[in-house]
Amino acid sequence: MYPNSTSQHDLHNANYVPAADSNPRPVPPQGVLSSSMQQYYPPFNTSSNMMHVQGHAATSLRRWSTGLCHCFDDPGNCLVTCFCPCITFGQIAEIANKGSSSCVTYGAAYALLALIGMPCLYSCCYRSELRAQYDLEEAPCVDCLVHFFCEFCALCQEHRELRNHGFDMGIGWQANMDRRSRGVTTAPVVNGGMMR
């Protein structure tokens, strides 16, 4: 019928793409055999579509607001984390879990796991939760490895990230929500000198 006739093998081949000819024909819906043209059009390739969707989702992830090794951007928190990481972790976990428990509860659980030498198994879960909430990329490597090799740096980075999202880490979840409901997003600035 057409000069570019196809074999039966081509008709059932899922990767078959009809050759272009000088007389273009209307394309029927994919995955059907057109009775007027006797031409098989393969179904939509869902695997490549999923790769495209996943690729789009991967490119929409945000970078962390500070790097993993920028601990000295907040020297106060850096010192607290070095000497008592359970405090920093408790503050992070309370905000990440939206105040379901207090920072004292999370900090105590962290301290107990630190006694057996594996607090990173607990803290890496909260890094994953934090990334999911703010669409952050999994960088510089997977969460469990970041916490296993750089526990204190990871805690400092997560603390800074929440602070950069407008949380006052010292007052807990409920007080932050009370501030936001009143329209206060940052702590008031106190002037250095007295004024008459």
Give me a quick take on this structure:
With 196 residues, this protein is mainly alpha-helical.
Sequence of strands across the biggest β-sheet: 1-2
Taking the sheet with the most strands, its summary is: 2 strands, antiparallel
Helix count, DSSP H or I runs of 4 or more residues? 9
Instruction: Let me know the average pLDDT.
Output: 76
Pfam families: PLAC8
Region (Disordered): 1-29
InterPro entries: PLAC_motif_containing
Task: Describe this structure as you would to a colleague.
The structure is a single chain. The protein is an all-alpha fold. The chain has a domain at 75-168. It is 51% helix and 2% strand. The chain contains nine helices and two strands; from the N terminus they run αββαααααααα. A two-stranded antiparallel ribbon has the order 1-2. Helix 4 packs across helix 8 (151-164). The longest helix has 15 residues, at 120-134. The chain is globular, with a radius of gyration of 28 Å. The N and C termini lie far apart (99 Å). Pfam families: PLAC8.
Please give a handful of descriptors for the protein shown.
single chain, 196 residues, two-stranded antiparallel sheet, globular
Helix and strand topology:
Elements: H1 8-12, E1 33-34, E2 39-40, H2 46-59, H3 75-83, H4 85-96, H5 103-115, H6 120-134, H7 143-149, H8 151-164, H9 172-181
Antiparallel strand pairs: 1-2
Region (Disordered): 1-29
